[in-house]
Amino acid sequence: MAIALIVNHGKRTVDAEPDKPLLWALREDLDLRGTKFGCGAGLCGACTVILDGVAVRSCQTPISEAVGKQIITIEAVTTLPAGKRVVDAWVDLDVPQCGYCQAGQIMSATALLTRTPKPGHDDIVAGMSGNICRCATYLRIQKAIRKAAG
Ligand code: FES
């Protein structure tokens, strides 16, 4: 069935079942492949997108839950004020190693700074606790978030 979504500030339509995970609608139907598949089980955070300002795991979010909400993916994260600062800090501090998890990390960091503009260490640890990095770039991630917070 045709389902209308608002993705990266534009109207898009996907032809899919309402229970299809948003991750696969983004990647397969809309060709937005920056959002990554990691575990598919809600454990790693690689698939994180922002839904009405909140970081969610798109592998665990059916399309039906996203209808009528603003979906922002890594492709448009720099259109968000916090997202632009996060990406700039990520580049400045050369955060990624293999890079696979970083789209999800950036989305979570952007959601964190949007709701908590000046996060303390504990806020950062809690806000990023759902995103796993197998290269263990955590210290650079934390430093970049502090830099983006200004
Ligand atoms: Fe969604 Fe791992 S792929 S949490």
UniProtKB/TrEMBL annotation:
List the Pfam families hit by this protein, alphabetically: Fer2 (PF00111), Fer2_2 (PF01799)
UniProt keyword Transit peptide present = no
Q: Which UniProt keywords apply?
A: 2Fe-2S, Iron, Iron-sulfur, Metal-binding, Oxidoreductase
Q: Where is the 2Fe-2S ferredoxin-type domain?
A: 1-77
Against SUPFAM superfamilies, the record matches this protein to: 2Fe-2S ferredoxin-like (SSF54292), CO dehydrogenase ISP C-domain like (SSF47741)
Q: Which InterPro entries match?
A: 2Fe-2S-bd, 2Fe-2S-bd_dom_sf, 2Fe-2S_ferredoxin-like_sf, 2Fe-2S_ferredoxin-type, 2Fe2S_fd_BS, Beta-grasp_dom_sf, Diverse_Oxidoreductases
Protein name, entry field: (2Fe-2S)-binding protein
Q: Which organism is it from?
A: Sphingomonas oligophenolica
Q: What is the lineage of its organism?
A: Bacteria, Pseudomonadati, Pseudomonadota, Alphaproteobacteria, Sphingomonadales
